Here is the input.
Amino acid sequence: MQLDYRATWYAFKTTTKDLMSTLGAANPEAASLLVQIQTNAAFLDAKWTQWLKEHSASSQYAIHDDYLSSLHGDLRVLRKLKKQADDQATLDALREVALDLQIKGDNCRSSADGLGKEIKVKVHAKAGGTAAVVPFD
Here is the structure.
């Protein structure tokens, strides 16, 4: 598992560096969001690396790792931006990834074990004018 995380953090570093030289060079807001993403990814990298070294035999974060899957989703969004022509869509996507990593970082900072805990949310959706509560993990 440690190698999966190392590869993921490395991918954040290289992907955001590439985007900084293209999107960031042309758009100051994009550059600022990319710096925020890089900063939070580096922080999380350090925390996860430390935790995994100290808990190498732990099964707490096991086979299907939703956290790692979520990080991969953020990476997919960033990688798609290389082909995105719509500036507003690009900024919206960068804001979403930056916010996700900020939430992960804040959760990690306030956690007793240094990683953060699962966050449960409820999504209220309307279908045909009728409100429904849909659990979302």
Q: What stands out?
A: Residues 24 and 32 are 8 Å apart (CA to CA). The helical segments are 2-26, 28-54, 66-80, 87-109.
